[in-house]
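User: Teach me something about this protein's shape.
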Amino acid sequence: MAPQALMDTMFGTRYHTEGAQLQLPRKVPMRVEPKSFFANERTFLSWCSMATTMGGVSSAMVGLTFSRSGGTEGRVVSTTTVDMISAVYVPLAIMMVLYALFMFTSRSTFMRKKQVGFFDDKVGPITLAGITLITLVAITLMAFIDVLA
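Assistant: First, the predicted structure itself:
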């Protein structure tokens, strides 16, 4: 599938959106409000902030697993569980940043070209939220297994 066809399918255009056949073609270029560029940037920074928080939590967990004496006494969660948590959270944070970058550039391109399309994304946030939920449930289960074992 060509990149433009993929973008048309994902974001919707006159040819790939339900009910678009009923719309008359535009004779005047689409007007883009200046605040739209700032809203796009604000959304991008919000996604990056969340990804940085997840990466920071992962790094902090790895750093806090080491005790001063080097032993494992006094720990509730094993180092293996913490290593697995960080191994899951870091790629998830990277994936969030890549998604935010892709959406930011695609929306900026739409606005710069004054291209008609929908700027909402129905798949990305739900997918990332689902993956985050699955990882949080898995982490909770691993922690309970460590506590009970």
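Now, about its shape. The chain has one domain: 34-116+123-148. Residues 18 and 102 are 24 Å apart (CA to CA). If you'd like, I can walk through any region in more detail.
User: That's plenty for now, thanks!
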